[in-house]
Amino acid sequence: MKRLLRALGGEAVWPPPVWLMRQAGRYLPEYRAVRAGAPDFIALCTTPELAAEVTLQPIRRYGFDAAILFSDILMLPWALGHGLEFKEGEGPVLPRLRDAAAVAALDPARVAQRVAPIMQTVRRVRAGLLNEGFADTTLIGFAGAPFTVACYMVEGGGSKDFAAVRGMAYSQPALFQRLMDVLTEASIEYLSAQVQAGAEVLMLFDSWAGVLSPLQFRAHVIGPVTRIVAALKRRHPAVPLIGFPRLAGVMVRDYAATGVDAIGIDTGSDIGAVSAMLPAHMAVQGNLDPLAVVAGGSAMTREAASVLDAMRGRPFIFNLGHGIVPQTPPEHVAALLEYVRAQ
Question: What is the mean pLDDT of the segment spanning 28-43?
């Protein structure tokens, strides 16, 4: 069985399987070359030949234990008919969703057709892994968790505090729940389609889960994720799910009850202390600081050693605590993998 799947099944594989969030991206010259030939970022995500190529690039270069589909968490609202544009130097820009009419305009019926190219990418990557000699590499599909996706839709993009989305959850709970219901059901179909296309593991990114109060966290993070996991486990019982409730802190104890098979831990958490709150059989993923990889050298290995020492003896997947950053030297990533695999 593949090393990542063994860890997700509750085995303390050592040295641990390793992959990095945003391992395909701007820090790689081969990615920049492909990106330069695409009209825009959405076109890159929806052109199977290009998206499959950039998904496979870090596997060819480093031999990670997993390939993760190259896409974006905001492709789901785009597929629902919500506007989306990626502006250079600014990030995603969306129309601000603030009323019932905007929620009613979201169209789940159009999702399957709009994400069809992404499913073609999944199929191409799965075939490419086999054809290029990476049969032991696991393919991860993913989606943004409903709350984080809602953050971008309500705010119209990124935010420092996500005050508008938090305010909607408090002051217009019925409207916000309708939005969450649409996103939850669409996420189930989107992730299920990825499994049917060849994804072997699924991951839910809840990047802004930590901005919520405990009560709101239980309602809008744990509630939707529990529904998604239950539905996917009914359809695809053999496919593990990784949840990443970034900045959740002690709320990971509650999050563990969603039914996910592993929890990703962010950089700001003590991974040993957090893992002690979780069931012993549950895999933990994380949580090296991405900037330690930028620094490289002894600073990087010291931080990596701290993570590895805390996780030795339990099911564990070595990763970052957030995505790799564009200024990362590719040779530092190679040195990191060499260090982890020498343990």
Answer: 96
Buried b (16+ CB within 10 A) or exposed e, 88-117: eeeebebeebeeeebbeebeeeebeebbeb
Instruction: Please identify which of the residues 22, 124, 227, 314 carries the catalytic annotation.
Output: 22
Provide the residue type at 304 as one letter. Answer: A
Q: In the chain, what are the domain boundaries? A: 3-341
Is 123 among the residues known to form the active site?
Answer: no
pLDDT at 269: 95
Point out the catalytic residue in the list 6, 61, 72, 107: 72
pLDDT digits (tens, 9 = 90+) for 193-215: 999 999 999 999 999 999 999 99
pLDDT tens for each residue of 127-170: 999 999 999 999 999 999 999 999 999 999 988 899 999 999 99
Give the mean pLDDT of 179-206: 98
CA neighbor of 147 nearest in space, from 132, 169, 175, 128: 169
User: Given the structure tokens 């529990």, which residue do they identify?
Assistant: 226
| Tokens describing residue 163 | 């005050």
Candidates 3.30.450.20, 1.10.10.10, 3.20.20.210, 3.40.50.720; CATH matching 3-341: 3.20.20.210
Indicate if 126 belongs to the active site: no
Catalytic residue among 6, 35, 60, 341: 35
Q: Is 152 a catalytic residue?
A: yes
Candidates 27, 31, 62, 152; catalytic one:
152
Query: Burial of 120 by CB count in 10 Å (0-12 exposed, 13-18 middle, 19+ buried)?
Result: middle
